[in-house]
Amino acid sequence: MTDALAERLDRLRKERDRDRAARALGTLDRVGRGQDNLLPHILEAVRARGTLGEICHTLRGVFGVHQPSVVI
């Protein structure tokens, strides 16, 4: 990782409001278990500086991991 990238990531982590990110991810989890559109809640998680890994982890917790079926 370059020094510039490491510095940017470190700055982003320091600027993040952890409570806001946690609330956004919790809302995403709750909404994912219902019938509402997920996109606005995914965008809010991004705006709250939730990481891609955190967002994916939340959605995997709701929907599981895709297992392709094998048709012979």
Descriptive report:
The chain is mostly helical and 72 residues long. Helix content is 68%, strand content 0%. It is built from four helices and no strands. It has helices at residues 3-15, 18-32, 39-47, 52-63. The termini are far apart.
Summarize the structure.
The chain is an all-alpha fold. The chain contains four helices and no strands. The mean pLDDT is 92.
- What's the story with the biggest beta sheet? none
Q: What's the mean pLDDT score? A: 92
> Per the principal axes of the C-alpha atoms, what is the gross shape?
flat
Pattern of helices and strands: HHHH
List keywords for this structure.
single chain, 72 residues, mainly alpha, 4 helices
